[in-house]
């Protein structure tokens, strides 16, 4: 028999930035809180307490190249479609 797990992992947080601004929000698994180019993901929680846990573990991710990656993917897709319709004709 498996152990029951919580249906929803979420944390209500308040984040303070270097310039003194405050941002509140809810962080859920696969639903990060975004602040100034940083994404804050809920990584884990205190599994010993299970549903009653008041400890969360977060992962901060900064990806300055995300836009460049999306542009590259769009260019590859556009090139593929162009080759599909305007590719060299076989004789």
Automatic annotation (TrEMBL):
Gene Ontology biological-process annotations: cytochrome complex assembly
Any one cellular-component term (Gene Ontology): membrane
InterPro entries, per database record: Cyt_c_bgen_Ccs1/CcsB/ResB, ResB-like_domain
Membrane topology reported for the UniProt record: Multi-pass membrane protein
Transmembrane segments: 65-85
Ranges of residues in domain ResB-like: 5-52
UniProt-annotated location(s): Membrane
Keyword annotations from UniProtKB, A to Z: Cytochrome c-type biogenesis, Membrane, Transmembrane, Transmembrane helix
PANTHER family named in the record: CYTOCHROME C BIOGENESIS PROTEIN CCS1, CHLOROPLASTIC, RESB-LIKE DOMAIN-CONTAINING PROTEIN
Protein name, entry field: ResB-like domain-containing protein
Organism this protein belongs to: bioreactor metagenome
